[in-house]
Structure formats: C-alpha cells, structure tokens
Amino acid sequence: MGRYHATRHDTSIKCENSRCGVLNAPDTSPEYDPECWRCGEPLDGKPEVGDVVSVDIVDVSDGGVSVGKTDGGFVLFLDRELSTIEAEVRVTEVSDTAGQATVVD
C-alpha cells in the first residue's frame, strides 16, 4: 500500500483530488503506488508548462473559453471555445489550483 509514513519517508505525494488530499509514499520508495491509497485516483499531479496533455472538456463559458480536466483532475482553461468532448492541449501557465492552455491543432 502506498501510504506515507513520516518515520520512513523524507517526502510525500499529495493526492490532487479535492475530496481526498491524503499523503502518499514518494515515487522513490518501495511502497510507491501510482494510485492514491485512499481514493484510488491516479497521482498524476499538475502538468508542467510546455506539457502536451489530453483533457476532457467539462464546460464552456459565455466568453468563449473552454474548461478542461486532465485524467488526474487538474483544471485547465483553454484559449478558445471547443465543441468536442476531448482535446490535446499545450500547458502555458500553472498555478496551485488551475492552469491555462492552448489547443494543439
């Protein structure tokens, strides 16, 4: 099981799921598991600027901005309105809770 233990691990990976948020064993330890030990969500975490990721389009605002979510649940605001349900995007900005991205044509 991928639980974090303060006596055995120097670092941890926090689950990005807003309803969970528990600490998991780091990827350098034998206890590491790519899924959260509590909720089972992938520990993908935040993408980095320049990454090309696949997102599910979950909303479109009146201002022409689409809202997408990565497989790990990270929210990205896209540069234009899309009528598709999935898109490949390039991450241009990342904060603690969300990011900006442009659609890869």
CATH superfamily of the largest domain: Nucleic acid-binding proteins
Number of helices: 0
Give the CATH architecture of the largest domain: Beta Barrel
- Main β sheet profile: 5 strands, mixed, barrel
Spans of at least 5 consecutive residues whose pLDDT stays below 50 are none
Average pLDDT number: 86
Strand content: 25-35%
The structural class is mainly beta
Radius of gyration: 16 Å
Helix percentage range: under 10%
Q: What is the H/E order?
A: EEEEEEE
CATH class type of the largest domain: Mainly Beta
Distance between the termini: 40 Å
CATH topology of the largest domain: OB fold (Dihydrolipoamide Acetyltransferase, E2P)
Strand arrangement within the widest β-sheet reads: 3-4-5-7-6
- Quick one: how many beta strands? 7
Q: Please indicate the count of domains.
A: 2
* Overall 3D shape: elongated
Describe the structure.
The protein folds into two domains: 1-43, no CATH class; 52-103, Beta Barrel (OB fold (Dihydrolipoamide Acetyltransferase, E2P)). The chain contains no helices and seven strands. It has strands spanning 13-14, 23-24, 52-60, 66-69, 75-78, 86-94, 98-103. The protein has a five-stranded mixed barrel. It has a two-stranded antiparallel ribbon with strand order 1-2. Strand 1 and strand 2 form a beta hairpin. The mean pLDDT is 86.
Give a concise summary.
The chain is an all-beta fold and 105 residues long. Helix content is 0%, strand content 34%.
